[in-house]
Specification:
With about 270 residues, this protein is α/β, with parallel strands linked by helices. The protein is about 25% helix and about 25% strand.
Length: about 270
């Protein structure tokens, strides 16, 4: 019998944005190379001893993306609402009980209202950051949508926000880890899979060049924490950098197989 439960894990792409190096790196490639940005949500589904989906197992959704209205406002086309894409995995957002919010930027917490029964798992420091003095500065404020933050406050008063202070287990075989760097309360997710520990970095490493080369993304609260965060991500993956999945790299869709044949270009299986 396995001592730690395992999960199947999928990255689900719902939007894409062309980007150049100078737009996404603090020290950009002098050749101004292309760094296209994909937008994902992730889902972890518990498996039984035989490797099948566990009867009664409850999927955990990581981040909720943004909707077409916000996408239009920010010049990003949403191919299909990420909450709707969950149906391709047999998941009804109306019944999801746990959503991990890696941070409160618009592309990670939009559509929160599509999960009416969910508890939202969030770092203390992220709520502090998103509602505190740092938001007086436009550079920090830009990536937040006020309606999403107000929504989280309403969820808090509805007793639907679970705060975490650092590293904590959400379910057996799945935990959150405070990284910081990109935002004050940036957290990543560690999941046990059939191939070992998989780390969903989210925006603790936007691209593979973060975790692989220690390069810095252009939106950053703390450079020191971002660099230290790369070390922590590698340790969480037991030193296997190939088991760390960045949050926005279009390369993810090339490195992993499609979740199903009919989901090519939409979702890949990470485990």
């Amino acid at each position: 019998m396995r001592s730690t439960p395992v999960y199947e894990v999928h990255a689900i792409k719902y939007a894409h944005l062309p980007r150049k190096a100078w737009e996404v790196q603090i020290q950009p490639d002098p050749h101004d190379s292309d760094h296209p940005m994909d937008y994902f949500i992730w889902v972890a589904i518990p498996l039984d001893e035989a490797g099948n989906r566990a009867i009664g197992g409850k999927p955990i959704v990581i981040d909720t993306g943004f909707n077409a209205t916000v996408g239009k406002k920010r010049g990003r086309e949403v191919k299909r609402n990420p909450a709707d894409l969950l149906a391709d995995f047999g998941i009804d957002p109306n019944t999801v009980e746990d959503v991990i919010v890696t941070h409160l930027h618009y592309d990670h917490i939009g559509n929160w209202d599509r999960f009416p029964k969910a508890r939202f798992h969030l770092q203390d420091k992220e709520m502090q950051f998103a509602t505190g003095r740092h938001i007086c500065m436009g550079g920090f404020r830009h990536a937040y949508e006020i309606d999403d933050i107000v929504g989280m406050i309403r969820a808090l008063y509805g007793q639907r926000v679970v705060f975490h202070d650092g590293d904590e287990e959400i379910a057996p075989g799945l935990s959150v880890h405070l990284i910081g760097g990109h935002t004050m309360g940036m957290q990543s997710v560690r999941v046990m899979t059939r191939n070992g520990w998989l780390v969903l970095a989210s925006d603790a490493s936007h691209y593979y060049w973060g975790i692989e080369k220690n390069k810095l993304f252009s939106i950053v609260y703390s450079v020191a924490d971002m660099v230290a965060g790369y070390d922590k991500l590698r340790k969480l993956a037991d030193g296997h950098v190939n088991m760390v999945v960045p949050g926005h790299d279009a390369e993810v869709m090339k490195r992993y197989p499609a979740s199903r044949d009919d989901l090519k270009g939409i979702a890949v299986r990470l485990d």
